[in-house]
Amino acid sequence: MMKHILLPIDGSECALRAVAAANEMALAFGAKVTLLYVIPDPRKEGVIQGQEAMILSESKAAPLARQHLEKAQKSLDPGIQTAISLQKGVVSRTIEKEAASNDYDFIVMGTEGMGSALKRLLLGSVTRHVLEHVTIPVLVIR
C-alpha cells in the first residue's frame, strides 16, 4: 500500500509534470506527499565559482526554492496531506538519504531539471543516481 510519496522538485517544467503525476497517485491511494527541494551546494557538487558569485547565488537560492515549493504545494489537491522539506547538499545524495531516512513508499520525480545544458546533464545524473541507489519504487516523469 502506498501511504507516503517523496516528490523532489526543482521548479522546472518536468518537475511540474511530476507534481501532477504525484497528485493523481496521492488521490488514488490516499497517500501523503512530501515535497523536497534540494539547494545544490556548489562546494560539494564540484562546481567551481568565485566566492562572491557563490554567496550571491546562495542568497537567492533559498527564497526561490521556497517559491517553487509553495507553488507545487498549491497545485496539489487540497485534500492531500503535504509536507515541505528544503535541504542543501549534493542533490542526488540528499534525495537518496531522504528516501532512506523516512517512511516513504514511492518517489515521483522528473527526468531533467531547469537551466543550461550542463545543468540538465547534472540533474539527469541525479535521476540516474536515485534510480540506482534507492530501494523503493521510482516513477520518472518526462
Total beta strand runs: 5
Largest sheet: 5 strands, parallel
Number of helices: 5
How much strand content do the residues show? 15-25%
- Rg over CA atoms, rounded to whole Å, is 15 Å
SSE diagram, text form:
Blueprint: E1 4-9, H1 13-29, E2 32-40, H2 42-45, H3 51-75, E3 82-89, H4 91-101, E4 106-110, H5 117-133, E5 138-141
Parallel strand pairs: 1-2, 1-4, 2-3, 4-5
Task: Walk me through the structure.
With 142 residues, this protein is of the alpha/beta class. It is 52% helix and 23% strand. The protein has one domain (4-141): HUPs (Rossmann fold, 3-Layer(aba) Sandwich). The chain has five helices and five strands. Strands 3-2-1-4-5 form a five-stranded parallel beta sheet, with helices on both faces. The radius of gyration is 15 Å and the shape is globular. The model has no long low-confidence stretch (mean pLDDT 86).
